[in-house]
Design goal:
Strand order of the largest sheet: 3-4-5-7-6
Order of helices and strands: HHHEEHEEEEHE
Distance between the termini: 63 Å
Number of helices: 5
CATH superfamily of the largest domain: Nucleic acid-binding proteins
Largest sheet: 5 strands, mixed, barrel
Radius of gyration: 27 Å
């Protein structure tokens, strides 16, 4: 009896030694936490907020006056991010629509350059900033410099209204 117990224990020990290198990977493969870690993590700036009633940038720009100075959640694809301080993001808009930018005070939130192309949800208020022709040229020149793009002031013939969203919270997915 002692021999059979000792033999069984030694077989179990050999089996455990053979399987021990596989156990961490088996446990990891079955772990939901591991599955989540392979997905791109969301990035939250500011307090959490409800995104279930968000509106798209296109909806906002179709009737911006309805949204100016009211709090709401806007959703869009990030087209550009400030490359100097991460203090703004620009959402993709149609060619015939004005620029739609999220802007925070420098250092309040720092948006990563890697966010470009991702979807963002932002809670805050829309501000309309009408500009003169000269202000428009200065602004567009500055924006082009920030993005390392060429700029020709002669091509700017009309003043623009900058719709700038001032977020309290942002979620990037």
């Amino acid at each position: 009896m002692k021999k059979s117990i000792a033999l069984s224990l030694s077989k179990a020990l050999v089996l455990a030694m053979c399987l021990s290198p596989l156990l961490p990977s088996l446990a990891q493969a079955q772990s939901p936490a591991h599955e989540q870690s392979t997905q791109q993590p969301s990035q939250q700036f500011g307090p959490a907020f409800d995104i279930s009633h968000s509106v798209t940038v296109q909806q906002v720009l179709a009737n911006p006056a309805a949204y100016v100075s009211t709090s709401f959640v806007v959703q869009g694809t990030i087209e550009a991010v400030c490359q100097k301080k991460g203090c703004w993001m620009q959402f993709t808009t149609a060619k015939d629509q004005p620029t739609f930018r999220l802007k925070v005070k420098d250092g309040d939130m720092v948006f990563p350059i890697s966010a470009k192309g991702k979807t963002a949800y932002a809670y805050g208020q829309l501000k309309a900033k009408p500009m003169t022709l000269e202000q428009s040229k200065t602004y567009l020149k500055h924006r082009a410099e920030e993005q390392g793009e060429a700029f020709d002031a002669q091509q700017v013939r009309t003043a623009v209204t900058l719709y700038q969203f001032e977020p309290e919270s942002v979620l990037i997915r």
